[in-house]
Automatic annotation (TrEMBL):
One of its GO terms (biological process) is mitochondrial electron transport, cytochrome c to oxygen. It is a single-pass membrane protein. This is Cytochrome c oxidase subunit 7C, mitochondrial. Component of the cytochrome c oxidase (complex IV, CIV), a multisubunit enzyme composed of 14 subunits. The complex is composed of a catalytic core of 3 subunits, encoded in the mitochondrial DNA, and 11 supernumerary subunits, which are encoded in the nuclear genome. Pathway: Energy metabolism; oxidative phosphorylation. It comes from the Eukaryota. The keyword Glycoprotein does not apply. PANTHER family: CYTOCHROME C OXIDASE SUBUNIT 7C, MITOCHONDRIAL, CYTOCHROME C OXIDASE SUBUNIT VIIC. Component of the cytochrome c oxidase, the last enzyme in the mitochondrial electron transport chain which drives oxidative phosphorylation. The respiratory chain contains 3 multisubunit complexes succinate dehydrogenase (complex II, CII), ubiquinol-cytochrome c oxidoreductase (cytochrome b-c1 complex, complex III, CIII) and cytochrome c oxidase (complex IV, CIV), that cooperate to transfer electrons derived from NADH and succinate to molecular oxygen, creating an electrochemical gradient over the inner membrane that drives transmembrane transport and the ATP synthase. It comes from Podarcis muralis.
Amino acid sequence: MLGVSVRRFATSAIRRSHYEEGPGKNLPFSVENKWRLLAMMAAFFGSGFAAPFIVVRHQLLKK
């Protein structure tokens, strides 16, 4: 009996939600402007790629 009431609550909570639907609407960033998206992705992935090189350079220059 408890499982049925939990299932009813879960489905009613989903029905009550007012989120937009469609491609890109459930992401935490905007995909409307492709150039801004490109810049943000380049900065995100570029910083992760460059970090080890920056750390090694810092260690080599440290006295």
